[in-house]
Amino acid sequence: MRYEPLVFPKRINIFSGHYGSGKSEIAVNAAFAIKKEGVSLLMADMDIVNPFFRSVDAKKVLEEAGISVAAPLFANTNVDVPALVPEIAAALKNPNRSVILDVGGDEDGARVLGRYHHEIVEGSYDMFFVVNRARPMTQNAQDTILYMESIQEASRLKITRLLNNTHFLADTKPEDILYGLELCREISDKTGIPVAATCILDTMAEGLADKLNTPVLLLNKNILLPF
């Protein structure tokens, strides 16, 4: 099996996408990939909107790998307005520390980034948009681009890279992933935003990764669903 792995050249990496796109799982896997470079890394779960798919669910395995984890105070509780922690701002300002931000899946979630706008733009950042063609608001280029524009307006940041993560959970077939990649390429042609990689479970990599003609981010499941 031969493929080009996704690399993360920027110090700050932000992951956004529609609910259920898989962005939190991708953010966690990205954290492990970046940590292999031996850097000091903070993983910040800033998704205060969706309580079901949260990167903080993987807190134990992240910390065991030497990755610091920060989440809004009162995350995963019934408090309506969780507060963000100062550790995130400190890490964003530190040129010797890498940061991953897992952001909520709509304008309200993306607006949380506004508090850190200056720190992010002054640093070196990539903002990934995770495209899952199986999700209702990202099934075609027009709707997906409108959704991306709303995220950019709310966050005051530019999406810089696209990730194809089209899947149907356990029912995902190789043709589903290729179908999603087709949409990513159409969006890239219309926006000029490059397709950074295709994300696939490590169990599907054999026979597929070398057919995608994109870099690949292999995913290991780290976040347990609550149902």
Plain-language structure description:
The structure is a single chain. The chain is of the alpha/beta class and 227 residues long. The protein has a single domain, classed as Rossmann fold. 31% of the residues lie in helices and 20% in strands. It has helices spanning 23-35, 59-64, 86-93, 107-111, 117-122, 141-155, 174-191, and strands at 12-17, 40-46, 68-70, 97-103, 125-131, 161-164, 195-201, 216-219. Strands 3-2-4-1-5-6-7-8 form an 8-stranded parallel β-sheet, with helices on both faces. Helix 6 (141-155) packs across helix 7. The N and C termini lie far apart (34 Å).
Fold blueprint:
Layout: E1 12-17, H1 23-35, E2 40-46, H2 59-64, E3 68-70, H3 86-93, E4 97-103, H4 107-111, H5 117-122, E5 125-131, H6 141-155, E6 161-164, H7 174-191, E7 195-201, E8 216-219
Parallel strand pairs: 1-4, 1-5, 2-3, 2-4, 5-6, 6-7, 7-8
Helix pairs in contact: 6-7
Q: What is CATH's topology name? A: Rossmann fold
How many structural domains are formed by the residues? 1
Number of strands: 8
CATH architecture verdict: 3-Layer(aba) Sandwich
Mean pLDDT: 85
Structural class: alpha/beta
Brief summary of the model shown:
With 227 residues, the chain is of the alpha/beta class. It contains seven helices and eight strands; from the N terminus they run βαβαβαβααβαβαββ. It has one domain (12-219): P-loop containing nucleotide triphosphate hydrolases (Rossmann fold).
